[in-house]
Design brief:
Blueprint (H helix, E strand, L loop, with lengths): L2 H17 L3 H16 L6 H21 L6 E4 L9 E3 H27 L2 H11 L1 H30 L7 H5 L2 H21 L17 H23 L14 H28 L1
Antiparallel strand pairs: 1-2
Helix pairs in contact: 1-2, 1-4, 1-9, 2-4, 2-10, 3-4, 5-6, 6-8, 9-10
Length: 276
């Protein structure tokens, strides 16, 4: 998938998760990011596990490290360095902080799983060509390095070498480094033979976006505009007393983000099925 539509949508959800204050709007951003991640190809479980456990940890710790709020729920024994009085404001803020973390993590994960890596590097090459080249070489050569290491280990075990200890295993670093240097020299010669570093750079023609990706780009643009307008207008407060979350700005932003997230998830799933 082209990185432009999914990148714009994930950036809007990330910005909404971080900058919005209304809990309904934050929850909508988290739900939309989760739906977008659900529409991406596997693996997805590790991203969900990381986001869920981190959000739960933030929610559980926040009432004991925050000393704010005027509506107490429970008061515990005095413990130095900890606030044992839990207030309603601290609990709601902890929920919102956990939702922020979930929305941010899932938005980034959705971009990683949905955006085509080669197209992302191609877009980066227009701004920083050398950095994009280094990233492309690293992503291509790392699997090759792993294959070389597996071959060296297999050869060493075929000669009855024990690799359970650090010193015998470290002895394979020298041959592995030598193979890497030989491959890098051959790659540099191949790049030089193809004219890399010349005065004029050529670019491969970019195909036009298919209809599904154009629709996804439109959904992403609507989401980005909605979040950008809602951020300066969202004046919800958690302390000292909770504000009223049912506001025109908050509910409108939440509704638009939910609908856009559902539409984007359906479009992303269709794009993935078409590519496969």
């Amino acid at each position: 998938m082209s990185p432009l539509p999914v990148g714009l949508l994930c950036a809007a959800l990330l910005a909404g998760s971080v900058a919005l204050s209304n809990p309904f709007a934050i929850a909508a951003c988290a739900a939309a990011a989760g739906a977008l991640l659900w529409s991406s190809p596997p693996p997805r479980a590790m991203y969900v596990w990381f986001a869920g456990t981190s959000a739960l940890l933030v929610f559980l710790v926040n009432p004991f490290v925050s000393v704010q709020g005027l509506t107490p729920i429970w008061s515990g024994p005095h413990i130095p360095l900890l606030d044992t009085e839990i207030t309603q404001e601290e609990v709601v803020f902890g929920i919102a902080a956990g939702l922020r973390l979930i929305g941010s993590a899932m938005a980034v994960a959705a971009f990683v799983r949905l955006a085509d890596g080669d197209r992302v590097l191609a877009a980066l090459a227009r701004v920083a060509p050398r950095s994009a080249m280094i990233a492309a070489l690293a992503s291509r050569l790392l699997p090759t390095l792993e294959q070389d290491a597996a071959g060296l280990v297999l050869g060493a075990r075929a000669r009855a070498a024990s690799l359970d200890r650090r010193r015998p295993a470290a002895a394979l670093a020298g041959p592995l480094l030598g193979l890497s240097l030989e491959r890098s020299m051959a790659l540099a010669e191949a790049m030089e033979a193809r004219g890399y570093g010349g005065a004029r750079r050529t670019r491969a023609p970019q195909p036009r976006l298919p209809i599904a990706e154009r629709l996804l780009l439109a959904v992403a643009a609507v989401t980005a505009v909605t979040v950008a307008v809602a951020i300066p207008l969202d004046d919800y407060r958690y302390y000292d007393l909770l504000g009223d979350p049912v506001t025109v700005v908050g509910m409108t932003c939440a509704a638009v983000v939910i609908v856009a997230g559902a539409a984007a998830a359906v479009l992303a799933r269709r794009i993935g099925e078409g590519a496969s």
